[in-house]
Design goal:
- The protein is of the alpha/beta class.
- The protein has 4 domains: 137 residues, Rossmann fold, CATH 3.40.50; 116 residues, Transcription Regulator spoIIAA; 119 residues, 2-Layer Sandwich (Transcription Regulator spoIIAA), CATH 3.30.750; 67 residues, OB fold (Dihydrolipoamide Acetyltransferase, E2P) (Beta Barrel).
- 36% of the residues lie in helices and 24% in strands.
- The chain has 15 helices and 21 strands.
- Helix 13 links the parallel strand 15 and strand 16.
- Helix 9 runs parallel beside helix 10 and helix 13 packs parallel to helix 15.
- The longest helix has 23 residues.
- The protein is globular and about 60 Å long.
- The chain binds S-adenosyl-L-homocysteine, iron/sulfur cluster and FE3-S4 cluster.
């Protein structure tokens, strides 16, 4: 068969990384990437189940792909990732033109399964058993990672890499589907992570670019690796990675508020390569809501944690997630959340309307009783408060020169530039702020001093210090 791959991703950074791992495994086997499903021999949709909308998006994309299949019956259509794990064989029933359903823990099998389909074996499915029916140990065995076989050379950008340091989640916040689709929390061995980051850094050095590594975990700061009677935590891991030559910046997401320990904050303060950027979702500012969510902390405790962060890391950028319209959320509850957003001075917040997920505790125990229009209003109100704060927090940067890791031409300019030509570039500060400025394309992957001239809520606009354009 011809080997042209089209892959589309929805969901969080875990999924972005998974797509990269699957694509690079296929590229190593001779595939090439194409940018339209109509031109592909294999179409993969990497899916998310965190909210209903994410699932709807996939099923409507699948609806559109029906014509592609009719036109070319040999095309292999695969649904992979979290929704594949959650819906399993239901995907075939809802979209009979799908050939392949693979969960997040079986992604290593994708190349072989595609070959089997191409050889005439018919539709294939590979997912983990429902976590609910398994012991913790058995569930750990069926939710296995495939990161260790990562094909470093076939990555899309040499200057940025995500490295998973843990899988799954055991927190079971009542609204959340992630623990059932991603399986039990498991930390990767420290040596294995160290080796992976070293290989990434060697590649970056060889290509003459600065490397930014983002360590990934659903509750990244509960990382724990036991070896020979000793326990290593995230602070220890950061200390070990910080010394790697060729590594420029080290970030980690997502943090769980209760595990934001002093030793971790001290590590962020003291280790030169660790970015003072902390994503620590609060979800709500109301104790009643937090209790029903089973988040394991009160709003007061979250505020105390924020104070500790500000004391140790006065210049840190803190970001958060909030859910509005969770079951039984009153106007008073919502006002408490609004107060937390006002007082928290987050760099930015992701705000979501509650979406009941079948199979979660909240969907079983509480009524999804906040009307859609109230959810929408609360969402907009919170966004407006946060956006004003984001802008206020960005404003003091005007006139200052910051170090930017250049990610490449901005999306709008991407198609029009020739090599060497000046274009609009986009990059990030050490605090994860987006900076747009004019410069030559070959600055991609470099650390560049940029003077900020204008600040919006989401973007900083600047110019290179030496006036290079
Ligand atoms: N592990 C991370 C986030 C995982 S999902 C954490 O604990 O923070 C990313 C975000 O999606 C969550 O922080 C939450 O704000 C949101 N989310 C999760 N389930 C949701 C649901 N059922 N409805 C709406 N938003 C949800
Ligand atoms: Fe979901 Fe909570 Fe786990 Fe985050 S910590 S992935 S919100 S269950
Ligand atoms: Fe979605 Fe799975 Fe991430 S459900 S948010 S893609 S872990």
């Amino acid at each position: 068969m011809d080997k042209r791959l089209y892959i589309e991703t929805v969901g969080c950074q875990m999924n972005v990384l998974d797509s990269e791992l699957v694509a690079s495994a296929l590229l190593e086997r001779g595939y090439e990437l194409v940018d339209r499903p109509g031109r592909a021999d294999v179409i993969l949709l990497n899916t998310c189940s965190v909210r209903q909308r994410a699932e709807d998006k996939v099923y409507s994309a699948l609806g559109r792909l029906k014509h592609v299949k009719e036109h070319n019956p040999l095309v292999v259509i695969g649904v992979i990732g979290c929704m594949a794990q959650k819906d399993g064989p239901l995907v075939f029933r809802r979209a009979p033109h799908v050939d392949l359903v693979v969960g997040p823990s079986q992604l290593g099998q994708v190349p072989e399964l595609i070959e089997a389909i191409a050889a005439g074996a018919g539709p294939q499915i590979d997912i983990s058993p429902d976590r609910k029916g398994e012991s913790h140990r058995d569930a750990k065995r069926s939710f296995l990672p495939f990161d260790p076989n990562r094909a470093i050379e076939a990555r899309p950008a040499a200057h940025q890499a995500m490295v998973r340091i843990m899988f799954g989640c055991d927190k079971f916040c009542t609204y959340c589907i992630v623990p059932s689709v991603r399986g039990p929390e498991q930390s990767r061995p420290m040596d294995e992570i160290d080796r992976e980051v070293r290989r990434l850094a060697e590649q970056a050095s060889r290509l003459g670019v600065a490397l930014e590594v983002t360590l990934l975990g659903q509750t990244v700061n509960s990382y724990q690796w036991r070896d020979g009677g000793q326990t290593w935590r995230l602070a220890d891991l950061l200390a070990r990675l910080d010394g790697i030559e060729g590594l420029a910046r080290l970030k980690f997401v997502t943090n769980y508020p209760r595990h934001m320990t002093d030793d971790l904050l001290a590590a962020v303060r003291d280790l030169p390569k660790v970015s003072p950027y902390l994503h620590v979702p609060a979800q709500s500012g109301s104790d009643a809501v937090l209790g029903r969510m089973k988040r394991g902390y009160t709003a007061g405790e979250y505020r105390e944690m924020l104070d500790r962060i500000r004391r140790t890391l006065p210049d840190a950028a803190v970001t958060s997630d909030f859910i509005v319209g969770f079951c039984c959320e009153t106007e008073e509850d919502f006002q408490r959340t609004a107060a937390l957003v006002r007082d928290g001075r987050f760099k930015n917040s992701f705000i979501f309307k509650y979406s009941a997920r079948p199979g979660t505790k909240a969907a079983e125990q509480y009524e999804d009783d906040v009307p859609e229009d109230v959810k929408r209003r609360r969402n907009n109100e919170l966004l407006a408060i946060q956006n004003a704060i984001s802008e206020e927090e960005n404003r003091p940067l005007v006139g200052r020169t910051v170090e930017v890791l250049v990610e490449g031409p901005s999306k709008t300019s991407l198609k029009r530039v020739e090599a060497g030509e000046s274009t609009q570039l986009v990059g990030r500060t050490v605090c994860d702020r987006i900076v747009v400025f004019q410069g030559p394309q070959d600055l991609t992957g470099q650390l560049v001093p940029v003077t900020i001239r204008k600040a919006g809520a989401f973007t900083l606009f600047g110019e290179t210090v030496d006036g290079r354009q």
